[in-house]
Every structure is written in C-alpha cells, then in structure tokens.
Design goal:
- By secondary structure, this protein is of the alpha/beta class.
- About 35% of the residues lie in helices and about 25% in strands.
- The protein has helices at about 10-20, 30-40, 45-60, 90-100, 140-145, 180-190; strands spanning about 1-5, 25, 70-80, 80-85, 105-115, 120-130, 165-170.
- Strands 1, 2, 3, 4, 5, 6 and 7 form a seven-stranded mixed sheet that branches.
- The model has no long low-confidence stretch (mean pLDDT about 95).
C-alpha cells in the first residue's frame, strides 16, 4: 500500500521513514492564509483540520491516478490564546522566542487521510503541551535563528533538530510536535480497514 504525503515538510517525511514508511511527497499548493480567511473564525483544532483536509484533497484531485492513501497535515502553535504558524522572517522568530522562553504553549496538528481507491476519508487532530527552558540566552536565540531552522516551522521551533535543546518537557504525543502523530495515523489507517503494517516499505 502506497502512502502519498500531501506536504513538503522534511520533519513529516523523516518521521514516516523512521517508522518504516517511504511515502511519495507531493506539494499540495494550498493558499493557507486565503483558506483560513474564507472559513471565518475557527478554533485552533478546527483550523489545522481544515488545512490538513484541503491539502489532502488538493493532492488527490491534482493526481487522479494515485492508488493508495493521501495524507494531509497541518500544525499551529498556540500561546496565550494566540495562534502562531511559520514565522518566515528572523525578526518575527526572535520576537516569538522572547515571548515563549520559560513558558509553555500547545502545538496542534491536524491529520486528514483519503483512500483514493474508495474515496473514504478520516481526519483527527492531535495536541501536545510544549514547555520551553527558562535559561535560554539571547545569544542562543540569535544563533538558533541564524541557522534558518525555526523560520519555516510552526511556532518557530523543532523537537527533532537543533530546537530540541530548548524544550524541557512535552505532555502528549511527542510526534504531534513534528506535525504527525504516528499512533493517531495508525488508528486512522486501520479505521479505513487497512493494516498498518501494509504501509511498511
């Protein structure tokens, strides 16, 4: 059984490979800002689920010959009720790190899975509480931002690369922090009456 990943996220790709799945990564080409604006006010779990669904549907629609499962995913970081996606700019990332240092926030990840053979689809959100170290220096923040790593990830941090050193504690599924909950994905796959191990390469 082939899994098609409707994402260009290196972290999601690496996570799937680590658990024995070699997906085909296909860029979804979804205008996320426009989609969220058109949907109106949404709670964070609703927002990541909307974008995960739109990404999966976009790939399935653009490639009607796919034979297998299409997985869409989206993540957002919530701090003090404010939602943070990818910072893109160093100055934005720096501002966020100064705000979240020594505090905690919630990382929300949406998942949407389409079986292209039957048209059946399932979706589910995941969340993890992320607590940051209190002793992160300004110099460390600047050095981290200079690597470019935090610029294209939700919340301006990673758990699977350099950013891991600045995270003290995670409550919930740690895979959700990289934007892909493996236990949840297994449950979703099985709900489509497909064996998880059939996805192994």
């Amino acid at each position: 059984m082939r899994l098609y990943l409707a994402s260009t996220s290196p972290a999601r790709l690496a996570t799937l490979r680590a658990v024995g799945i070699e997906p085909v990564a296909l860029p979804p080409g979804v205008d996320e800002d426009a989609a969220v604006a058109a949907a109106g006010p949404l709670a964070v779990p609703e927002m990541v689920m909307l974008l995960a669904r739109l990404k999966a549907e976009a790939v399935a629609s653009a490639h009607p010959d796919l034979d297998g499962l299409v997985l869409g995913g989206d993540s957002a970081f919530e701090l003090d009720g404010v939602v943070y996606g990818k910072p893109h700019l160093p100055e934005v990332a720096r501002e966020r790190w100064h705000a979240q240092r020594g505090r905690f926030g919630m990382l929300h990840s949406g998942h949407w899975l389409i079986d292209t053979r039957t048209g059946r689809a399932v979706g589910s959100p995941a969340v993890a509480r992320v607590e940051f170290a209190t002793d992160i220096s300004d110099a460390e923040i600047d050095a981290y931002i200079a690597t470019g790593e935090p610029l294209e990830v939700a919340g301006a941090f990673t758990i699977d690369a350099r950013g891991a050193a600045f995270i003290e504690r995670i409550e919930g599924d740690p895979h959700a922090v990289v934007g892909l909950s493996i236990p949840l994905l297994r449950t979703m796959v099985r709900s489509l009456e497909i064996e998880w191990t059939d996805l192994w390469t």
